[in-house]
Amino acid sequence: MDTIAVDPYYTLIVATLVLLVGRLMVDRIKFLQDFNIPEPVAGGLLAAVIIYILHASTGVSFAFDKGLQDSFMLIFFSSIGLSADFSRPQGGRRRAGALPGGGQRLHRGPEHRGRRLGGRAGP
Questions:
Q1: pLDDT tens digits for 52-108?
Q2: What is the C-alpha to C-alpha distance for residues 116 and 110, in angstroms, rounded to an integer?
Q3: Which of 5, 28, 43, 104 is a Cys-bridge partner for 18, taking CB atoms 3.0 to 4.6 Å apart?
Q4: Cα within 13 Å of Cα(31), Cβ side
Q5: In a 3-state reduction of DSSP, which class is residue 49?
Q6: Strand, helix or coil for residue 69
Q7: Which residues are paired to 3 by β-bridges?
Q8: How many Å apart are CA 50 and CA 39, to the nearest integer?
Q9: How far is CA 31 from the centre of its chain?
């Protein structure tokens, strides 16, 4: 098995190409648009499949430099948050607000039924 070491410069070039291919995929494939799949996810999945096929068929593996990994992960997850559509979940605000209190009631268990958090008896 051969391992190809990819230095930081070429790792950055490959990451940029994967991002651009992901953008092309999302622009042209309606399924990816309908389910709001981000460009880095679409391109990364395709890159992972291609690298897996290369490894399975030829035994070649790649060792990408991970010096920029933390920075790019921050950029990636920030871009996911920035591309979120905040107008869609507005109808579920009442239900989402009940989650913290409901979870707290479930966590306390049956021995605390009818009691408030301060230990006093409930109404």
A1: 999 999 999 999 989 888 987 888 788 777 766 666 656 555 555 555 555 555 555
A2: 13
A3: 43
A4: 2
A5: helix
A6: helix
A7: 61
A8: 17
A9: 18
